[in-house]
Amino acid sequence: MYQIVQKEQFSENVVKLVVHAPRIARSRKPGHFIILRIDEKGERIPLTIAEANIEAGTITLVVQNVGVSSKRLCAMNVGDQILDLVGPLGKATHISEVGTVLACGGGVGIAPLLPIVEGFKKAGNRVVTVLAARTKELIILEKEIRQWSDEVIIMTDDGSYGTKGLVTQGAEEIIKREKVDECVTIGPAVMMKFVALLTQKYEIPTQASLNAIMVDGTGMCGACRASVGGQTKFTCIDGPEFNAHQIDFDELILRLGGYKAEEKQAWERANS
Amino acid sequence: MASLTTQFFGIELKSPVVAASCSLTGNIEQIENLAKAGAGAIVLKSLFEEEIDAQLQEELSERKALEPDPEYMDYFDYIIKDENLKNYTNLIKQAKQAVDVPVIASVSCISASDWVVFSRKLEEAGADALELNLFLLPADISRDSAANEQFYFNAITKVLENVGIPVTIKISHYFSNLGQMIQKLSKTGIAGITLFNRFYAPDIDILNEQVVTADVLSQVSDYQMPLRWIGLMADQVDCPLAATTGVHTAETAIKMLLAGAGVVQVASVLYQEGPDYIAKMNEQIKSWMDKKGYDRINDFKGKLANKKKDVVIYERAQFMKYFGGKSYS
Amino acid sequence: MKEYLKIERDQEWRDQLRKKIKNKERTTQERVSMTSLDPMERIKYQDREVNLGLNMEQAQREASRCMDCVNPTCIEGCPVSINIPKFIKNIERGEVLEAAKTLKETSALPAVCGRVCPQEKQCEAQCFYTLKLKKEPVAIGYLERFAADFEQQSGAVSVPETAPKKQVKVAAIGSGPASLSFAGDMIKLGYDVTVFEALHEVGGVLKYGIPEFRLPNHVVDVELESLAKMGVKFERNFIVGRTASFDDLKAEGYQAFFVASGAGLPRFMNIPGENYNGILSSNEYLTRVNLMNAAKEEFDTPVLKGQNVAVIGGGNTAMDSVRTAKRLGAERAMIIYRRSREEMPARVEEVLHAEEEGIEFLNLNNPVEYFADENGRVSKMRVQRMELGEPDASGRRRPVVVEGSEYDIPVDVVVVAIGVSPNPLVPSELPELKVSRWGTIEVDPETMQSSKPELFAGGDIVRGGATVILAMGDGRKAAAGMHKYLSQKNETAAN
């Protein structure tokens, strides 16, 4: 059992949970994710690790209420126990000293971006981060991101915070202003698609971290397959990060909707 | 100075000397050397259907000590295909990155089966064109010639359905009505036909009385067969022709161009003389053109083709009185 | 081994039993037939076992068919060398608990093997009836299941004796049949055994893969409990190499490892359209239903319920998938297999059961491409007809394409069950470990020791794909190999 030791409500549908998982806190690296199951009836939910505290033996997860199980997870409180939690899964982000790194995060994608930003900063890079969301309250972990960024640009769709506009507008400004050596992007698939198109135009190597549908997270089910450079890859063991310029985002977007009808039914059942 | 620019594979090439599919073109370092030497295009080493099957059979017979569940081996051919395909697409990608001359993928198939659809993957990997090396040894006496010919058309149709890049084919001369076959093939929508491919051939060792592998490289005089058919067909086809087998010198290359070929594909001579030999051939073709006053390949390409059937030698089959005055006395 | 069999056979009760009925009488009896649930009834339930088992009378009568041969060839057909005549004769004389004990001498999972082993290719293929009399073999599998179930139901589950504790820690990675069999042997030898499982449930393929209509979970659970009673520890949600590294575990006192992490990666055919929604691996399909209970409304995990479900493949996994599809309400549940019925690797009984349940068999057909609707959901598949050509190197006739024979089949769910590849998770954490080009760990086939002396391996990760019983055989060999290795090592250290 894995106890929730801290909870913070970021917005109506986004929650930060700090969970006791000492082994994982010790072994995780930026880019890694975990899979948890709240109880006997829960789904196995993949979540990227935002932060870890080795001394306290905890990991930080950011959860968005998008389905039946995640809704139940968001409703859990400090002191509650999560039945199963396994990890760290996936390949760690390849972090090295490259010069200037542009990090683009959108929505809950900001959470997995945090350890990567931290990693690049610690490796001696200049890090410029663009955070984007629909509206102000969906910009999360800003303080933590600022701690590891040389500069942070905020973009909101409705202009309620930072500059009004899309992540790509903020990113392009930076690219035009200074030499960017590498770009990392995490967020909704559509957002990553446009970031990838942008950086491809400027020939900047770009990594995108995918959030695919998964069951086991260890390569067994193949639900998370994605086409990268014309080859089928499994997000859970070959990823979650891939060369953004080679990802077939349109296929990814279609695949993310693979269980939409079933999820809707379950949602209606759960809420009726 | 004369320009060597010519057309084949549906693209413009800066030289009519093309590195044919061979083991040299399966190695990235050699591919770079060939490009540096001035090859008009590089046809990568073939992805062989036959070889893939041989690997499968080997795998099936090897697994004895820790025998797997039959379920595991049931579709193992797909794993082998996949591995070969992965290696091949990587080769295409590497080649595309390393050189700026057109990179042509080559598939060698003995059946028009489902895997021809894999050609799509070669296109996705960035190949500029695709050469289908089609070969059916007409030795299966249960199949008639119509069935054999149909195999070629099926394969072409399937591949054309699957890819957008130009597709050329390389064929052998084993057809009962070669001229008509070449003409029919040229009307299928392909971007070129290469005459003729060379095969692994048997020979006999009389000392040990054993069947052995014949000399693997072509001979200098082997060019006569493709020369005749290029000359005969160049003006009767709807797509460009390329010549291969026995093209060892600039002189032979020029002959092929005069007969009507758009390019020549060379392999054996590269093994003998090294990749740099292409530079030498290019130089010699240029100096011949300069001497003759040709500015472009098109100025003389097909000049000696069998136009209006006036160059009868292409059609002549018997020596007749050629040897008439000669004797061994 | 031979001597042990002879001593056992020479026991008085066996001798008397043999004399009780004349061989001629034994051989004239018909093989027992298994009673099963009505097909139209059973397809309504994912978790009702199809085969109902034998009753005492049926079992004893069937046991009496066995002639207790001097040279019991059946044992040679068993990868874990169960003393088959001994357990069968115990059933015949009514000592069923003794029979169960006999099974447990060499098999950690008799109730499982009695259900999922391809007996027709193993013990029963080597039975005197099959080999010499050209008659139906003794129903060894049914009898094994009978004895194991009898013991489970009796409540008097015997816990095999274990040697004095050695205080030597060993780890088994993965909790499928290979690991369980390894753990059973090692715990008997007195080792301190911990089984590490990545998923939230122990049992590996027995839990996530094989459906309950073929192998009920409670049957597996009893076997697991019996191992736990013997002292085997189970760690769930733990990926060795990730959650903790091999070095971490060595520092915690583990002296040797048995890697049986299974065949992780489902294979696909890499044909156009295969990534459309609605096309999934049998692993995903079966895991959702078996492990995550997706068929039950009160569980959160969804599963795709198709009207026209095509399952690609001809093995047991394909049969499990297609029968699951039927149980999830498919109108048309089809097997698409490119060879003929005879070449299908599935157990004969599963194919028969599938047929009874209304599964369509499209043999000599093979998919070449998938097409989708505007939402990216698969809507039809293009298949090609095949014919059988020359035998390949394994002796099976190879499928050859019938050119120009393509046609389309409407489908809304496609399950690809063409096999799996070894799970790279463990090998990738040990770069110096010798693996084949296909990702399987290379081992000495006798001791199952890998290129790293303290690391042994077995099951799918070594063979690519193994049946439950082959995996169990590997587990036993590895236990013997590791025991020898550790004994020598610790002896040297002591001196």
Structural features, described:
- Chain C: InterPro entries: DPD_II, FAD/NAD-bd_sf, FAD/NAD-binding_dom, Helical_ferredxn, SudA-like.
- Chain C: It comes from Sunxiuqinia elliptica.
- Chain C: This is Glutamate synthase (NADPH/NADH) small chain.
- The complex is a heterotrimer of chains A (272), B (329) and C (495).
- With 272 residues, chain A is of the alpha/beta class.
- Chain A folds into 2 domains: 88 residues, Beta Barrel (Elongation Factor Tu (Ef-tu), domain 3); 157 residues, Rossmann fold.
- Chain A is built from 9 helices and 16 strands.
- The two termini of chain A are 30 Å apart.
- The model of chain A has no long low-confidence stretch (mean pLDDT 91).
- Chain B has 329 residues and is an alpha/beta fold.
- Chain B has a single domain, classed as TIM Barrel (Alpha-Beta Barrel), CATH 3.20.20.
- In chain B, 39% of the residues lie in helices and 16% in strands.
- In chain B, strands 3, 4, 5, 6, 7, 8, 9, 12 and 13 form a 9-stranded parallel beta sheet that branches. A two-stranded antiparallel sheet of chain B has the order 1-2.
- By secondary structure, chain C is of the alpha/beta class.
- Chain C has 3 domains: 153 residues, Alpha-helical ferredoxin (Fumarate Reductase Iron-sulfur Protein, Chain B, domain 2); 169 residues, FAD/NAD(P)-binding domain (3-Layer(bba) Sandwich); 155 residues, FAD/NAD(P)-binding domain.
- In chain C, the strands form 4 sheets. A 5-stranded parallel beta sheet of chain C has the order 3-2-1-4-16.
- The longest helix of chain C is centred in the last third of the chain and has 27 residues.
- The relative contact order of chain C is 0.12.
- The model of chain C has no long low-confidence stretch (mean pLDDT 92).
- The chains are: A alpha/beta (272), B alpha/beta (329), C alpha/beta (495).
- Chains in contact: A-B, A-C, B-C.
- At the A-C interface, α1, α2, β7, β14 and α8 of A face β5 and α16 of C.
